[in-house]
From TrEMBL:
<dbReference type="InterPro" id="IPR029787">
    <property type="entry name" value="Nucleotide_cyclase"/>
</dbReference>
<feature type="domain" description="GGDEF">
    <location>
        <begin position="418"/>
        <end position="548"/>
    </location>
</feature>
<keyword id="KW-0548">Nucleotidyltransferase</keyword>
<dbReference type="InterPro" id="IPR003018">
    <property type="entry name" value="GAF"/>
</dbReference>
<feature type="domain" description="PAS">
    <location>
        <begin position="209"/>
        <end position="268"/>
    </location>
</feature>
<dbReference type="Pfam" id="PF00990">
    <property type="entry name" value="GGDEF"/>
</dbReference>
<dbReference type="GO" id="GO:0052621">
    <property type="term" value="F:diguanylate cyclase activity"/>
</dbReference>
<dbReference type="InterPro" id="IPR035965">
    <property type="entry name" value="PAS-like_dom_sf"/>
</dbReference>
<dbReference type="InterPro" id="IPR029016">
    <property type="entry name" value="GAF-like_dom_sf"/>
</dbReference>
<protein>
    <submittedName>
        <fullName>Diguanylate cyclase CdgB</fullName>
        <ecNumber>2.7.7.65</ecNumber>
    </submittedName>
</protein>
<dbReference type="InterPro" id="IPR000160">
    <property type="entry name" value="GGDEF_dom"/>
</dbReference>
<dbReference type="InterPro" id="IPR013767">
    <property type="entry name" value="PAS_fold"/>
</dbReference>
<feature type="domain" description="PAC">
    <location>
        <begin position="280"/>
        <end position="332"/>
    </location>
</feature>
<dbReference type="Pfam" id="PF01590">
    <property type="entry name" value="GAF"/>
</dbReference>
<dbReference type="Pfam" id="PF00989">
    <property type="entry name" value="PAS"/>
</dbReference>
<dbReference type="InterPro" id="IPR000700">
    <property type="entry name" value="PAS-assoc_C"/>
</dbReference>
<keyword id="KW-0175">Coiled coil</keyword>
Length: 548
């Protein structure tokens, strides 16, 4: 009878195995897969107890699932056995294919190792193939690309009370093989799910970061711009916010046709070129659409789309027009006379010092000095704003880095040499106007004299009030005859009647002509012109010093 039923029993077991394996592969998570593996041993393979030990990342094995005895499950689930102890077990006993059977006669030496285990009671075996309570049967599971050990199924107490025969061993071995595949797939799915969740979170964070940057860029109260770095379009503006477009009066579409070097004031090109891309700061003027210029503060930083992506120049543009206007007003007050608006004594000396150096020129009579590097090496104008000066503009920048010595005509006759003439003017008769008509009248005279002097010189010449009724004119590129003609013209302008406090008054003027050249200090130049003025004043009769 048993012989007739054996094929039917095996067929029913195969059907059960097929269903359990289908359930293993249909489990939704790694934990569900592991529990399905343990439950399948009990339901389909005829064992009362089953335990799944899973290899952890550190190599040790943890009890990940248990089936058949809730008390034993609560006792050992989650406990860990060392890899060393497990390898000792898998190297003992009898090998049934891939299965490891350790009979009770050998297994007693494992009672005190650190592998989690349970104990069952029962009578001693009466037959040779009867199952002993201390027998141990392990089914290793392999998986992954290298076929490494991923876990071990431990089974106990076959329901028929006997050690498994050939069919039972083959079924358990096949089941462990399929369980290894199912667990590996479940782990892969879990890793993929974690990776997808992590990727989604990173993408959400990236989208949030991009949105935060976009809002910070677009709605910033001050101007922002992004420009290209490197390549043929180096320095070209790619994107601007509304604040920068409003500040410059240009639409965003038009801004994309420019770089900052196209918009900067010509006098501020050097400042822009010296501003570094990473952390660079500069204060300069940018051109508006209407042709005017606005003072701004630029702050640069370099950003990248990704770790190895293209780099871009991010420029923050802040409107500092009002601050600059106040600074320029303060600087003007410090360097200009409050009454006449002319440069004061300090500004005069600064301008004069800028034209003369302390190296006295050594040339033959009538010779022309070559430019010398008086202020350090030539500056390189390679920069991150897409600007490379060339041609006449490059020559102009090179000129800023060279100093041409100032020379003076020699002797008392005009030899054709052009130099920097310094005309020292002292008003004649001004004190009597102050004494007779008061300081308001005197101030009106000084203001009008300053106006006439300023109108009588060329653009680029300097008219300064040295103090009191003394004025100084700096006129470059004049010969001796030119300077004398200028002094005569200015004196003729000054002696014309001046309206002051409702009456017409007259003042005269004495001029002394000095010449500035390198090797002199500003004070020495002024003293020379002052002395010549007094010589000229004393050379005329007192009654002729004033026109009326």
């Amino acid at each position: 009878m048993e012989t007739e039923l054996e094929p039917y029993v095996q067929l029913a077991s195969l059907r059960q195995l097929h269903q359990v394996m289908a359930d293993m592969n249909a489990a939704r998570s790694l934990a569900d897969t592991l529990q399905t593996v343990a439950d399948g041993v009990v339901s389909a393979l005829g064992y009362e107890l089953a335990c799944v030990n899973l290899v952890r990342g550190d190599g040790d094995l943890v009890v990940a699932a248990f089936s058949g005895n809730p008390a034993a499950e609560a006792l050992i689930t989650g406990r860990v056995g060392s890899r060393e102890s497990w390898e000792r077990r898998l190297g003992m006993g009898e090998q049934w294919g891939n299965l490891i059977f350790i009979p009770h006669t050998e297994g007693w030496i494992l009672d005190d190792d650190d592998v989690p285990q349970w104990y069952t009671d029962g009578p001693a075996p009466r037959f040779e193939d009867e199952w002993h309570p201390s027998d141990r049967l392990f089914a290793p599971m392999y998986g992954g690309p290298g076929g490494e050990l991923i876990g071990v199924i431990s089974v106990d107490r076959p329901r028929n009370g006997r050690r498994p025969g050939a069919w039972g061993r083959e079924a358990l071995q096949m089941y462990a093989f399929q369980a290894g595949i199912a667990i590996s797939n479940a782990r892969l799915r879990a890793n993929m799910q974690r990776a997808l969740v992590r990727l989604e979170r990173e993408q959400q964070a990236l989208r949030a970061s991009e949105e935060s940057f976009r809002q910070a860029f677009e709605y910033a109260p001050s101007g922002m711009a992004i420009a290209e770095m490197g390549g043929d379009q180096h320095g070209r503006i790619l994107r601007t916010n509304d604040a920068l477009c409003r500040l410059l009066g240009r639409p965003a579409s038009a801004m994309r046709r420019y770089s900052f070097s196209d918009l900067v004031h010509p006098e501020d090109i050097g400042t822009l070129l010296r501003t570094s891309a990473e952390g660079g700061r500069a204060e300069l003027r940018l051109g508006r659409r209407d042709g005017s210029y606005v003072w701004v503060s630029l702050r640069n930083s370099v950003v990248a789309d990704a770790a190895d992506g293209p780099r871009f120049l991010l420029t923050h543009v802040e409107d500092i027009e009002e601050r600059k206007r106040r600074e320029l007003q303060l600087a003007h007050r410090a360097s200009h006379d409050s009454l006449t608006g002319l440069p004061n004594s300090a500004e005069l000396r600064a301008r004069l010092s800028a034209r003369v150096c302390q190296q006295r020129p050594q040339t033959a009579h009538g010779g022309v000095l070559e430019p010398v590097d008086a202020y350090g090496p030539t500056v390189s104008y390679e920069n991150d704003f897409g600007f490379r000066p060339d041609g006449a503009l490059a020559d102009a920048y090179d000129a800023y880095d060279h100093h041409v010595h100032t020379i003076a005509p020699e002797g008392d006759r005009d030899d054709g040499t052009k130099g920097l003439a310094v005309l020292f003017c002292d008003l004649d008769g001004f004190k009597s106007i102050n004494d007779r008509f008061g300081h308001n009248a005197g101030d009106a005279v000084l203001i009008e004299v300053a106006r006439r002097l300023s109108n009588g010189v060329r653009d680029g010449d300097t008219v300064a009030r040295l103090g009191g009724d003394e004025f100084v004119i700096l006129a470059d590129g004049l010969g001796r005859a030119d300077a004398q003609d200028l002094a005569v013209r200015l004196r003729n302008e000054i002696i014309q009647p001046i309206r002051a406090e409702g009456r017409a008054v007259r003042v005269g003027a004495s001029f002394g002509i000095g010449w500035a050249h390198c090797g002199m200090t500003a004070d020495e130049v002024l003293k020379s012109a002052d002395e010549r003025m007094y010589v000229e004043k004393r050379s005329r009769p007192k009654q002729h010093r004033r026109a009326g």
